[in-house]
Specification:
single chain, alpha/beta, Rossmann fold, N-terminal domain of TfIIb, 2 domains, 8 helices, 11 strands
Length: 242
């Protein structure tokens, strides 16, 4: 079994990420992020292929990025405007970026790729240290499904078509709040696997870690369109300020 390191996910999926997630519309995300940036600089943790960073930059926001995977950043560099975005290759928990930012953000569950509570708290403390006065931090992640966690393992079918079957196989460790998940794509050309390790947290724990880092919750939505967050929401878009 190959060793799993912080850059593993991005290196595995770099060449197909945009194809696999082509149906995800970045416009609502970019619109809210531009609003929060208020004309200041923005920093994305886990910038990837620039799925959000490029549309945000197109709105006139100066965007910087951090990612652990050189391969996935290389994909962004092939896109129009991709060469203009400064990116640091490194551990996002350390927030290895220069200067202060009006907005720091992490989307699409990427924060949970920090696989220990210590790493997540270190990230939040470093985020707080890099926020300009009045700046904010946006964190977008799924709300853990307790029914899945209680089962301990889940295999779900996301697509079954003439030429593609897509499955997710996930194992949960409720004591460590960890999950190991492998996406399985079966086509006539063969089988492709992409694996990820995550450390999930419920919104109250995120708020407590943020508070310990000197950040306070300003708003929480169920979507980037500011849909109200409820106990039934599957995702949380949390906005914190120093």
């Amino acid at each position: 079994m190959a060793e799993y390191t912080p850059e593993t996910y991005g290196e595995q999926i770099a060449d197909v990420y945009d194809e696999w997630y082509r149906h995800a519309d970045p416009e609502p995300e970019a619109a809210l992020l531009a609003e929060l940036a208020s004309g200041g600089r923005a920093l994305e943790l886990g910038i990837g292929t620039g799925r959000i960073a490029l549309p945000l930059a197109a709105k006139g926001v100066e965007v910087h990025g951090i990612d652990s995977s050189p391969a996935i950043v290389a994909q962004m560099r092939t896109k129009p405007g991709g060469d203009a975005i400064p990116v640091t290759i490194g551990d996002m928990a350390d927030v290895p970026a220069d200067g202060a930012f009006a907005l720091i953000f992490v989307v699409f569950n990427t924060f949970f790729m920090l696989t220990t509570q210590d790493a997540q708290l270190r990230c939040l403390r470093n985020v707080a240290a890099h926020l300009a006065p009045g700046g904010c931090f946006l964190l977008h992640a799924f709300v853990p499904d307790t029914s899945r966690i209680e089962k301990g393992e889940v295999v779900s079918v996301h697509e079954a078509s003439v030429d593609l079957v897509r499955l997710d196989a996930t194992i949960y460790d409720s004591m460590q709040q960890r999950l190991d998940t492998t996406q399985v794509r079966i086509t006539e050309e063969g089988i492709r696997l992409s694996h990820a390790k995550l450390r999930y947290a419920f919104p109250p724990e995120l708020d407590l870690m943020a508070k310990l880092a000197g950040l306070s919750l300003e708003a929480r939505y169920a979507s980037f369109g500011k849909q109200p967050f409820t106990s039934a929401s599957a995702y949380a878009v949390s906005v914190y300020r120093a």
